Amino acid sequence: MAAIIALSYTMPEQFSVVTGSTLTLHGAVSASTQKDSAQAEAVASLSPGSTYTASLRLFGLFPIKDVAVNVVDATSVIPCGTPFGIKMFTDGVLVVGMSDVDTASGPQNPARSAGIKVGDVLISINGTAVNTTEQVAELIENAGDQAMSFRIRRDNLEFDVKFRSEKSVSENRLKAGLWVRDSSAGIGTLTFYVPGSNVFAGLGHAVCDVDTGDVLPIASGEIVPARIYSVVKGASGEPGELRGGFELGTLGNLSINGETGIYGTLSHTPVLGDPVPVAMKQQVKTGYAQVLTTIDGTEPELYDIRIDEVKYNDSSPTRNMVIVITDERLLSDTGGIVQGMSGSPILQDGKLVGAVTHVFVNEPTKGFAIFAENMLKTANTLSSQQQDAAA
Q1: 248-276 residue pLDDT tens
Q2: Rounded to an integer, what is the distance from CA 353 to the centroid of its chain?
Q3: Listed residue (375, 201, 197, 226) closest to 300, CA to CA
Q4: Which stretch of DSSP H or E encloses residue 229?
């Protein structure tokens, strides 16, 4: 009974299957979708967009829960594993810090007094949209000691606050006591792109601010070619990293910085190759797999890994698998998973099953990976938006 209760919480509420197949799970949990062969044939012939109900059972006997099963088109993508540079500008400016102002009446913080918090996004000042730190500085300076209206976004809610700068005694000028950031840049690994639409997916997790840890709200951005020059080898307690630099040119435009990665449209394809099907999460199994990643130059290589755990829980969509690096070449050069490898595609049984997302800091040979299915869902959303815009 305890196992059934635990499974009812950890198993997701829905699964997806490609046209012509039915829901099949690995291990002790099985899925029952029909009572006879005629019903089985009917389920397998459902068209994309259809949904049916399946019953999950432990050892085929004990009922766990009913889940929704969505029928989708089979999708094949081009795995990449190539390094790329990210240049991103925020939608509004992100509040990343505050500092007290030494006023004549003692230390004060105008931003905190106005109700502003680190992690808030400043959208406009007195009705004027702001997207750069320069705009914020100019508008605050021009306002002098007059009250201003700040439009703030916090947790997807927008509201206005009244703000007034305070005069610093030591600097003899008005100060806001506010630190903001308007852009981000870095290097990651491209996971895949969809032939035809050229929609790409990378990183497997969001680009977050280094100070606040909050997801940066994207206004515009691009990805550019990058080259890996060296590797800082990882060790217990000390994450390693890939060190590289941007190269000339552009690869495409950024559209989405979301929980499961960054997405956009390629103007140039970084790699050519044969498409591989994207595995649904229930097709991923523990055991042998390979990761496609670049640790020198621009050309990716395949390295052996092992998938130790597969986690269906939807509450953490970027930590669906625990993987272990087993390839002696990769272990010798990097010590395991290092920063910059996020987004490296994982292949198993001829399918794209996921991408590297995080390293275990105290055990760098291990890390988390995201299901490729989770990344494909966002990529498909972007493709649909593009089709709607073109219609």
Answers
A1: 889 999 989 888 999 999 988 877 788 99
A2: 16
A3: 226
A4: strand 218-232
Are the beta carbons of 17 and 75 closer than 8 angstroms?
A: no
Look up residue 374 and give its two tokens.
């989770």
Overall pTM surpassing 0.70 (yes/no)? yes
User: 63: alpha, beta or left, given left = phi > 0 and alpha = psi -120 to 50?
Assistant: beta
Distance of CA 42 to the CA centre of its chain: 37
Q: What is the 3-state secondary structure (H, E, C) of 152-210?
A: EEECCEEEEEEECCEEECCCCEEECCEEEEEEEEEEEEEEEECCCCCEEEECCCCCECC
DSSP 286: S
CB of 261 closer than 8 Å to CB of 375: yes
Kindly report, residue by residue over 79-107, the tens digit of the pLDDT: 999 999 998 888 888 888 888 888 888 88
Residue with tokens 């760098």: 364
Q: What is the DSSP letter of 307?
A: E
Adjacent-strand bridge partners of 228: 244, 297
- DSSP one-letter code for 266: E
Q: Are strands 14-18 and 62-72 parallel, antiparallel or unpaired?
A: parallel
- C-alpha distances (whole Å) from 258 to each of 98, 214, 236, 382 are 26, 11, 29, 12
Bridge partners (DSSP) listed for residue 31: 56
Q: Residue 107: CB partners within 8 Å, gap ≥ 6?
A: 100, 101
Q: What DSSP designation does 214 have? A: P
Q: By the 8 A CB rule, do 256 and 378 touch?
A: yes
Active-site amino acid positions: 205, 327, 342
Give the residues across from 175 on adjacent strands: 166
Rounded to 5 degrees, what are φ and ψ at 31?
A: -120, 130
- Alpha-carbon distance 355 to 190, whole Å? 10
SS3 for 40-64, per residue? Answer: HHHHHCCCCCCEEEEEEEECCCEEE
Q: What share of the chain is helix, strand, coil (3-state, %, to 5)?
A: 15, 45, 35
